[in-house]
User: Fold these one by one.
Assistant:
Number 1:
Amino acid sequence: MSDFGFLLAVVILIPIAAATLPLIASLRYEKVGWHIAAVSLAVNLVLTAVAVRAFFVDGKLRHELGGIPVPHGIELVMDGLSVLVVLLVSVVALAVLVHTRTAGPRSNAFYSAYLLLTGGLLGVSLTGDLFNLYVFIEITGLAAYALIASKGDGKSAYSALKYMLIGTVGASLYLIGVGYAFIATGTLNMVDLSVQFQELGYGDTLVLTSFGFIIAGLAVKTALFPVHTWQPDAYSAAPYGVAGYVSALVSTVSAYVIGRVILTVYTTDFIAANPVITSALVYFGALSIVVGSVLAVTQADVKKMLAYSSVSQFGMIVAAFGIANSAAVFGGVIQLIGHAIMKGALFLGAGILAYKVGAKTVYDYEGISFELPYASAGFATLALALVGVPPAVGFIGKWYVGLGAVQGGYWIVAVVIFGSTLLTLAYVLRLVDRMYFGKPERGAAEAVADGGVSASTKRVTVGMVALVCVAAVVSVVLGPSAAWIESLLRLEEVMG
């Protein structure tokens, strides 16, 4: 066991503890929250990098909280399935601050919630205990509701309330499933549960019931069809910085948890023993791919278009984990990471275009590249990467998921992925065509963006544009790096 295992607890604790500082500072200072968040998350990223390096050198990292041994104590684990998710959370949380520094929100309370959400996401990614996972899911939920409502208008308040109500149902379903698992086995440790489930038999009623409730609850959190309706409202009502952060990480981590539960708790043997149940999960994922893509094509509002696109992308990721062979799981992980980078940066890029010229709908993108060449180039590159244009990461993820689907006998999933790619191409080309071949019909002074604020009052910095452009480059570079990433993830250990 590596001596660096304690860092797993530290990287969770730092943002959660730091979340109290902006509120305390509010007694004297009004706008120090951003600085506290930046310093805290920068330190956290360094420590995360040290932990990730230790994983690559020494293998799986473990830490028993309070020194209480498993299965009675709570264990934190970094393995091949979680390592990139943890690194992703740490990097994105710090990077989005570049956008919010200028674009806002700027209140201390906002950055307290921002730090709390980051700590919760890291906890979800690292915990090895099902009930502790529920605790972190609730922390992320509460913080996300606050961030969605941070715009301060009626639409954001309504969307946050809707998200809270639906999210509470999802968390409750998950907790019921955890209860059934505990009744069946008397343990909550993920690895110990997998052993107990094997001894009970994968056809045991309690085991099947626990799986059904847990996956149903996580499907709500991930925004799979037909329990996806909170996501478009939440993304479209939130400030662009919040939409970028939440779209990059919150549903991403929930989808990761579905993979974690399937592969670590129930295992691929459960998948093989219950083809009807697992096929239902795969086909629900495929249905989400179709519905999300179709709804995205019909949207004129760019925020809602990107939100429905996420419904489609997460359907593909969940289907990959349901197929649960090596190719599909690897493709699901790549798609998970790639989608987080691409979609988060697309929301931030859309924010830049809205701040400068008030572009909120597809029709507002006419000739926008002539006014904002660098931001438009980054946005267009990310959008094409989302389609899956080679060699971008979007192509690699879809290729491996489709390959895994064919290998697993789910030909229809491969067909659906191809069809959804054409639909994604349709709505992306609508945007890119207008950006580069349309004629601008507006002046920035008359443009209105972000809930009625004049576009001219929103300053866009070089750092904000550079962030989108860097994300675009990363989305392209990650594709050719897939083979190298596969060798580092050691997914064979996760999948047994």
Note: The mean pLDDT is 90.
Number 2:
Amino acid sequence: MIITNIETVPGQAVREDLGLVLGSTVRGKHVGKDIAAFFKGLVGGEIKGYSDLLVEGREEAVERMKTHARSKGADAVVNVRMTTSSITGGAAELMAYGTAVRLKPSEDK
């Protein structure tokens, strides 16, 4: 499955627009990571535990979006965007969304 943040796939044309697809996940903080983050915040720098948490969340959201697209019979998801929002003080939602499409070879070659 092709996933892209642009509106088209080079060399391909959209044969059919299948509509919006999305995937999301809610991730919570781990107490151990909170303690490490507190101390890291005192001295500055990347809080690796939180970075890893967000990377894993984005990957899961994209996989769920792809599953949604496959269920519609899509070849690709175009114009993909991601967003993160705070649910509570200890959890965040990560969402990936885009337009599911069926492709055909472009006639403009």
Note: The domain at 2-105 is CATH 3.30.110.70 (Translation Initiation Factor IF3).
Number 3:
Amino acid sequence: MILTVTVNPAIDRNLTVDQLVFEDRAYILQSQETAGGRGINASCVIHSFGGKTTAVAIVGGETGQRLKQMLSGCGFAVDIVEVQAPTRINMNISDRHGLTIKLNEKGAAVTPEDVQRIEQAVSRRLPEARWLMLCGSLPPGVAPDFYARLITNAKQLGVKTLLDTDGEPLELGLEAAPTVVAPNQQEAERLLNKALLTRIQYLDAAERIRMMGPQMVVLSLGSRGCVGAREGQVVEAIPPRVDVVCPIGSGDALAASFTWAMLRRDDFVDALRWGVAAGTASATLPGVTFASFDATKKIYEQVQVRDNPR
């Protein structure tokens, strides 16, 4: 079982508009609300691929009850921790040409008692897990070493971990030496305090991050695929060209598919191919929508791998 943790979930309000142009109006063509948050998204992908997953998530307020209702029919186990802080609403806007804007609320503050109950929920589920995915931002009130503590607990039980976050939680999480860390390009740039513009810089960045603690790094690069690093090896997984409709959520699909594939075969390079395939296939769909296993498999067969031994 793959256990996902989403401490700062959201209701995603997804708008498709005719065009996004500075200082001009846009007309809404389609609007929908979905359950959001990186860990919840990851569980959705894993479940659709036939994997077993449980999602731990917090909900609060009226929006939290709406999120809880959305998750009631998701098909996988959800361990809900109810808090007073209202669940946030994020807004994703994309036009017909693939231009996208993502607007996220920070989330309301949770209490120390809430944090303790979240940790207890994760601890209850850990013994039945093979992988623990720690995904997304932390709301106010959660200490930045929260993920680091969970990584340490998981390691004591022999559970592998994937960390997918940003900022100080990422820095402190790296010190706990997770199995995998999965930043996107912008998160890696903030971590390294350096712009990443060229292929050589991507390769070096993945290796530098690996030297900061994790066993493996999966650096996602959007339409350029990803760079994976482990001891002695840096690998590029390069997707085919596709028509991008909405890239939001593609990184979540990549991390989820990578973890699913690692659990399935424990083959790092093959898992990178699956991750890039899921992210690429999902980017061809409108809104925050995740590609099916069959659609992902078609892209998987076209993903190229370039090995760079170190």
Note: Residues 2-309 form a domain with the UDP-N-acetylmuramoyl-L-alanine:D-glutamate ligase fold (CATH 3.40.1190.20).
